[in-house]
């Protein structure tokens, strides 16, 4: 099936098969077993060539190369490699650097096993009007929406959303509402900080949601130094903003104190809610539409013991909206919550993945999970075991069973951060061995 056809079908169809559950609803979807995982990897001085790189892993269990690196593409220098995302047709993967604000666009359709660097956007700060630190790369129809973390004025947390065309041309900048410049938004609580981090959408509600983190001054500082600096610890976001998706206008500012990070919205056609976690207070929050049609925020569960600073990071919601995986970086654990009642989540299990853990990518069918370890170059642990890896697991509904482990420092690759799933047949190609993978709509 052609990517454009898959995209059109994604507007009306919702099959429950493979792919990663945190993707944009506008994207072409993978059906069946994914073939590869693309890993956006931080360069580390003294490890291999020391450069940021896109690493491709073979993850098809029918392949003789299962669990192995099959390609690595360095981009030159270290940019604080962080997040990545596909275009809506899934032909290109955008990957950004939080320090240099460069955006690297990879062609993953010409040869999915060996991506090539298609384009580098080096004038993001200038074209956007001063936005620094592109973070989330999120697919909209024909567009890529990028969240910023900072600005070039004071390198603090005030920032904006930035739109590009799929071809890499700048379109528009949308500044986050803040005290003194609400831009028409309704402030519902104490905070209107103008900070940004992640973005997700619920098209059926014409709603877009953004969370908030901290600016360049903090995320490029050593973690120990920052946590000992009382003023620095005050410079974290405390808001989730609800936007009008079509007009890109901020609508409602919700108090979510404690640095809300990843946002994950429910998939069910009648489920008008999203989840986020707060890094500093270790809470699970529900962002929901009440009976009056107003958006609200409520803390609904604790994540570990906040006094031990577990530091919640990435989360992944299941395709049927009944389970939520939550990673805590500092203790290296993943936790599974039953969210069948989104107002009363219950922890079902927890398991140590490594000496630290950051990202989790869950297949659409819920049977496979991939974990990576790196958070930020100056925050990552440097002492201890099992610190920089990508690991695969099977999930049978009761237990996580390891399938492969790759030590990225031992492999001289760097520190692995964001993972994205790929399939050969999506582009009408076949790998060296049969896989049965198909392309279809999301």
Give short descriptive properties of this protein.
5-stranded mixed sheet; globular; Methylamine Dehydrogenase, Chain H; disordered C terminus; 442 residues; mainly beta; 33 strands; disordered N terminus
Overview of this protein structure:
The chain is mostly beta strands. The protein has one domain (38-421): 7 Propeller (Methylamine Dehydrogenase, Chain H), CATH 2.130.10. Helix content is 6%, strand content 41%. It has 5 helices and 33 strands. A hairpin with a 4-residue loop joins strand 25 (323-328) and strand 26. The two termini are 13 Å apart. Mean pLDDT is 92; it is low at 1-17 and 433-442.
Q: Could you outline the blueprint of secondary structure elements for this entry?
A:
Elements: H1 3-9, E1 28-31, E2 36-42, E3 53-58, E4 68-74, E5 81-86, E6 92-97, E7 103-107, E8 116-121, H2 124-128, E9 131-132, E10 137-140, E11 143-147, E12 150-151, E13 160-165, E14 170-175, E15 186-187, E16 199-202, E17 207-210, H3 216-219, H4 223-227, H5 230-233, E18 239-244, E19 249-255, E20 260-265, E21 273-278, E22 283-289, E23 295-302, E24 312-317, E25 323-328, E26 333-338, E27 346-352, E28 360-362, E29 368-372, E30 389-395, E31 400-407, E32 415-422, E33 438-441
Parallel strand pairs: 15-19
Antiparallel strand pairs: 1-33, 2-3, 2-32, 3-4, 5-6, 6-7, 7-8, 9-12, 10-11, 11-13, 13-14, 16-17, 17-18, 18-19, 20-21, 21-22, 22-23, 24-25, 25-26, 26-27, 28-29, 29-30, 30-31
Low-confidence spans: 1-17, 433-442
> Can you tell me the CATH superfamily?
YVTN repeat-like/Quinoprotein amine dehydrogenase
Shape: globular
CATH topology (fold) name:
Methylamine Dehydrogenase, Chain H
Helix content: under 10%
Largest sheet: 5 strands, mixed
Widest beta sheet: strand line-up: 15-19-18-17-16
**Which structural class is indicated by helix and strand composition?**
mainly beta
Number of domains: 1
**CATH classification, class level:** Mainly Beta
End-to-end C-alpha gap: 13 Å
- Radius of gyration, in angstroms, nearest whole number: 20 Å
Instruction: Please state the second-level CATH architecture.
Output: 7 Propeller
Question: Can you give the mean pLDDT?
Answer: 92
Extended strand count = 33
Strand percent estimate: 35-45%
Contiguous helical run count: 5
């Amino acid at each position: 099936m052609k990517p454009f056809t898959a995209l059109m079908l994604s507007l009306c169809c919702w099959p429950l098969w493979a792919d990663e559950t945190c993707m944009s609803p506008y994207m072409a979807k993978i059906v069946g077993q994914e073939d590869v995982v693309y890993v956006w990897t931080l360069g580390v001085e003294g490890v291999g060539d020391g450069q940021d790189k896109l690493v491709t892993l073979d993850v098809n269990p029918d392949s003789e190369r299962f669990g192995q690196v099959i390609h690595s593409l360095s981009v030159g220098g270290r940019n604080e490699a962080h997040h990545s995302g596909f275009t809506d047709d899934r032909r290109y993967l955008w990957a950004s650097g939080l320090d240099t604000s460069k955006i690297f666009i990879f062609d993953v359709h010409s040869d999915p096993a060996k991506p090539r660097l298609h384009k580098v956007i080096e004038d993001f700060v200038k074209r956007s009007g001063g936005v620094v630190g592109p973070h989330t790369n999120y697919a909209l129809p024909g567009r890529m929406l990028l969240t910023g973390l900072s600005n070039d004025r004071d390198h603090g947390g005030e920032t904006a959303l930035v739109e590009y065309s799929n071809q890499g041309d700048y379109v528009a900048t949308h500044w986050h509402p803040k005290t003194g410049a609400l831009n028409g938004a309704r402030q519902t609580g104490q905070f209107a900080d103008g900070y940004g981090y992640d973005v997700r959408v619920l098209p059926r509600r014409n709603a877009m949601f953004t969370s908030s983190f901290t600016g360049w001054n903090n995320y490029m500082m050593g973690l120990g130094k920052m946590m000992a600096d009382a003023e620095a610890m005050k410079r974290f976001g405390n808001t989730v903003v609800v936007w009008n998706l079509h007009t890109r206008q901020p609508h409602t500012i919700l108090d979510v104190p404690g640095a809300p990070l990843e946002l994950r919205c429910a998939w069910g056609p009648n489920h008008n809610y999203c989840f986020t976690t707060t890094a500093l207070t270790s809470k699970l929050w529900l962002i929901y539409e009440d009976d009056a049609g107003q958006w609200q925020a409520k803390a609904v569960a604790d994540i570990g013991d906040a006094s031990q600073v577990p530091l919640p990071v990435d989360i992944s919601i299941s395709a049927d909206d009944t389970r939520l995986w939550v990673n805590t970086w500092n203790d290296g654990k993943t936790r599974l919550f039953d969210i069948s009642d989104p107002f009363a989540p219950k922890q079902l299990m927890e398991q140590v993945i490594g000496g630290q853990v950051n990202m989790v990518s869950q297949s659409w069918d819920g049977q496979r999970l991939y974990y990576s370890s790196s958070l930020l170059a100056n925050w990552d642990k440097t002492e201890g075991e099992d610190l920089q890896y990508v690991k695969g697991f099977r999930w049978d509904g009761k237990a996580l069973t390891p399938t492969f482990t790759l030590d990225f420092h031992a492999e001289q690759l760097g520190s692995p951060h964001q993972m994205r799933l790929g399939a050969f047949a999506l582009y009408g190609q076949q790998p060296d061995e049969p896989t049965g993978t198909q392309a279809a709509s999301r």
